[in-house]
Design brief:
By secondary structure, this protein is α/β, with parallel strands linked by helices. Helix content is 65%, strand content 10%. The chain folds into three domains: 330 residues, ABC transporter transmembrane region fold; 167 residues, P-loop containing nucleotide triphosphate hydrolases (Rossmann fold, 3-Layer(aba) Sandwich); 77 residues, Rossmann fold. The chain is elongated.
C-alpha cells in the first residue's frame, strides 16, 4: 500500500471518528432552544414529504390528461381537484421554506448566545496557568471561533434530516419500479462523496495548521491600527516592517488556500461527470421502458422527477454529511476546551474563609516553578503576614514578588510546601469565599471600557447600583477628583471603543483601579505595582492614603519607590527566590545590606 493510500485511509478514519462529536454538540443545540429545535424537526418532516407528494399528484394529472386526449372523454371533476391539490402542495412548500428559514435564524441566535456564554463561563473557571500557555491560547481561539462559526453545521444537520427523509421516500418509489435504477444513482454519487470527504479533511488540516499564523495576522492587524502603538510606529518607522511581515504571512496563507482550492476544482469537476453518468443511465432506462409501453407518460414524468431529485438529494446528502464531518472535526477543539478542568478549585467540603482573620498568612517551605519551566522562582520560602500588618516586597525583577502575590491569592498552588491562612492550607478553603476577603490591584490592571461607576463597581460587582459606596471608594483612592471632571460624572463611558467615550491618562486609570480595592472591603489588600504610571509625588499621596485607610487590615504591596516602601511595617527583600532581608526601614538601613544600598542609590538620584 502506498503512502498516499495510507494517508487517505487515516484521513478518512479521522473524519468518521470526528462524528463522535455530534451527540455532545446536539446536546448543546438542544439546551440552547428546545422549543425551536422541536418545531424545526416537525416542519422539516412535513417539508421532506412535499416533493414526493407533488410528483405523485402531477403524475395523476398527466395520466388523466393522456386518457382524456386518447379516448376523447369529457374532463372529469376530479382533475380540477388534483390541480387544486398540486397548487396547495406547491404553496405549502414555499410557506414551509420560509418557516424553516425563520426557525433556523432563531436557532442560530439562540445557539450563538448559549455557546458563547458557556465559553466565557468555562474560560473564567480555568487556571491562570492555562492563560500563560500558547497551546491553550490556540485552543481557546479555535473554541471562540467554533462557538460562532459552527452555525453552518447546525443548519446542515437540519437539512440532512430533511434530505434523508425525502430521499427515502423518492428511493422507495424508484425501487417500486426497478431496484437497478437506485443502484445506478448511488454508484455514480459515491466517488463524488469520497472526493468531498478527502478535500474537507485537507481543509481542516490546513486551517488547524494555519491557526498560529492567523493569530499573528490578527495581532499585526491590531498592532498596526491601535492607539497604544501609534506613537512608536511613527517615531520608529515600524509601519513598513509590520506591513511587510503581514504581507508575507498573509501571502503564505493565501497560497496554501489557492493550492487546495485548485486541486479540489480539478478533482471535483471530474467526479461530478461520473455522477451525471449515473443519472443519465437511469434516465435512459426509464425512457426505454416508457417507449416499449411498460410505463405510462405520467409514470415517466414521476420517475424522471424522482430520479432527478433522488440523484440530487443523494449527492446533497453525501455533500452535507461530508460538510458535517468537516464541521465535526473543527468541533474537536470546542469540545476539548469544554473538557478542560481547572486544577485550582474548591473541594466539595471546602471551609469558609475566616472572618475575621485571626493570625494571618504563612508561607511554609514554599517552592514554585511555572509550568514548562524547571527554574524555581521561589525556593523553600518561609514568610508570614500577620493580621493588621503592612508588608512591602522589594527586589529586582524576576525574584518572585508577583509570584508571592499570586500564591497568597491562590491564583496558583505551590510546587512544594504550603500557604496557610490561620494555620490551615489555602486549598482547604472555598475559592469563592477566599477571594471575597482579598482585594488585589495588579500593575497590568484592566481598563474596562464601561462607565466610571462600573469601572469601580467591578471590585464588588454586587454593589454596582450602590452609588454611595462606589463614591466613598473613589474618594479613598482620589479617583473622585478624576470623575468630577468627566462630563457624565459616574455615568461617563470611558475609553475610545464606544461612542462618546472619554479616555483617561495612565494615572487616572490607576486611581479608578485602586478604588476597586477599597470598594471590596477585604481583609487583605494587595497592591502589585499599580501606581507605576504615577509620578513620585502622586504615588506618595496614594500610598500615604493607603497606609491611613488600611489600619487594622493586612496589606501587601510592591513598589520600586523607597519613599513609599518605608511606610510599611516590614520590608521583605527577595533575592534568588528567597528572603534576603526582613525588617523595618530603620532596621534594614542599620543592617547596611542590599536594601540600604538600593535605598542610598535611589536617594542619591534625588539630591
Amino acid at each position: 500500500m502506498t503512502q498516499g493510500h495510507k494517508d487517505f485511509g487515516k484521513a478518512w478514519r479521522e473524519r468518521m471518528s470526528a462524528l463522535r462529536n455530534l451527540p455532545p454538540v446536539l446536546a448543546i443545540v438542544w439546551r440552547s432552544g428546545p422549543a425551536v429545535v422541536t418545531l424545526g424537526l416537525v416542519f422539516r418532516l412535513i417539508a421532506s414529504l412535499q416533493p414526493i407528494a407533488l410528483l405523485y399528484v402531477s403524475k395523476l394529472i398527466i395520466d388523466s390528461i393522456v386518457n382524456i386526449l386518447s379516448r376523447h372523454q369529457p374532463i372529469p371533476a376530479h382533475l380540477w381537484w388534483l390541480v387544486a391539490a398540486e397548487f396547495l402542495i406547491a404553496v405549502l412548500g414555499n410557506v414551509l421554506t420560509r418557516i424553516l428559514d425563520y426557525l433556523d435564524s432563531l436557532l442560530a441566535d439562540k445557539y450563538t448566545r448559549h455557546v458563547s456564554i458557556q465559553v466565557m463561563k468555562h474560560a473564567a473557571e480555568l487556571d491562570l496557568i492555562a492563560y500563560e500557555d500558547p497551546v491553550f491560547y490556540d485552543r481557546l481561539e479555535r473554541a471562540r471561533v467554533q462557538a460562532t462559526d459552527r452555525l453552518a453545521m447546525i443548519q446542515m444537520l437540519g437539512r440532512l434530516i430533511q434530505q434523508t427523509i425525502t430521499t427515502i421516500t423518492l428511493s422507495a418509489s424508484i425501487i417500486y419500479f426497478s431496484p437497478w435504477l437506485l443502484l445506478l444513482l448511488i454508484a455514480g454519487v459515491i466517488p463524488a462523496f469520497v472526493g468531498e470527504s478527502h478535500f474537507a479533511f485537507l481543509g481542516y488540516a490546513k486551517n488547524f495548521r494555519q491557526t498560529p499564523v492567523r493569530r499573528q495576522l490578527d495581532y499585526l492587524r491590531v498592532l498596526g491600527g491601535s492607539k497604544e502603538a501609534a506613537k512608536e510606529l511613527k517615531l520608529f518607522g515600524l509601519s513598513k516592517f509590520l506591513t511587510e511581515r503581514f504581507t508575507r504571512l498573509s501571502d503564505q496563507v493565501y497560497e496554501e488556500n489557492v493550492a487546495l482550492s485548485r486541486r479540489k476544482l480539478v478533482a471535483g469537476g471530474f467526479l461530478s461527470i461520473v455522477g451525471s453518468l449515473g443519472y443519465y443511465a437511469a434516465y435512459v432506462y426509464v425512457i426505454w421502458r416508457t417507449v416499449t409501453g411498460a410505463l405510462t407518460i405520467g409514470s415517466l414524468y414521476f420517475l424522471a422527477g424522482a430520479i432527478l431529485q433522488a440523484s440530487s438529494n443523494i449527492q446533497q446528502i453525501f455533500s452535507t454529511l461530508s460538510g458535517v464531518a468537516d464541521q465535526a472535526l473543527f468541533l474537536t477543539d470546542l469540545l476539548a476546551f469544554f473538557e478542560m478542568r481547572p486544577t485550582i478549585r474548591s473541594k466539595t467540603d471546602a471551609l469558609r474563609a475566616p472572618r475575621p482573620i485571626m493570625r494571618g498568612f504563612e508561607f511554609r517551605n514554599v517552592s514554585f516553578a511555572y509550568p514548562g519551566n524547571s527554574r524555581l522562582v521561589l525556593k523553600n520560602l518561609n514568610f508570614t503576614l500577620h493580621t493588621g500588618e503592612r508588608v512591602a516586597l522589594i527586589g529586582e525583577n524576576g525574584q518572585g514578588k508577583t509570584t508571592i502575590v499570586k500564591l497568597i491569592t491562590r491564583l496558583y498552588d505551590p510546587t512544594e510546601g504550603q500557604v496557610l491562612l490561620d494555620g490551615i492550607d489555602l486549598r482547604e478553603y472555598s475559592l469563592e469565599d477566599l477571594y471575597r476577603e482579598i482585594g488585589v490591584i495588579f500593575q497590568d490592571f484592566m481598563r474596562y471600557e464601561m462607565t466610571a461607576r462600573e469601572n469601580v463597581a467591578v471590585g464588588r460587582i454586587e454593589e454596582i447600583e450602590a452609588i454611595q459606596e462606589i463614591a466613598a471608594a473613589a474618594h479613598k483612592s482620589l479617583a473622585d477628583e478624576v470623575i468630577a471632571r468627566l462630563p457624565g460624572k459616574y455615568e461617563q463611558m470611558l475609553g475610545r471603543r464606544f461612542e462618546n467615550g472619554v479616555d483617561l491618562s495612565g494615572g487616572e486609570w490607576q486611581k479608578l483601579a485602586l478604588a476597586r480595592a477599597y470598594l471590596r472591603d477585604a481583609q487583605l489588600l494587595v497592591l502589585d505595582e499599580p501606581t507605576a504610571a504615577l509620578d513620585a509625588r502622586s504615588e506618595y499621596e496614594v500610598f500615604e492614603r493607603f497606609a491611613e485607610l488600611t489600619g487594622g487590615k493586612m496589606a501587601l504591596f510592591i513598589s520600586h519607590r523607597f519613599s513609599t516602601v518605608r511606610m510599611a511595617d516590614r520590608i521583605v527583600v527577595l533575592a534568588d527566590g528567597q528572603i534576603a532581608e526582613d525588617g523595618s526601614h530603620e532596621q534594614l538601613i542599620a543592617l547596611g545590606g542590599s536594601y540600604a544600598a538600593m535605598f542610598e542609590m535611589q536617594a542619591a538620584s534625588y539630591r
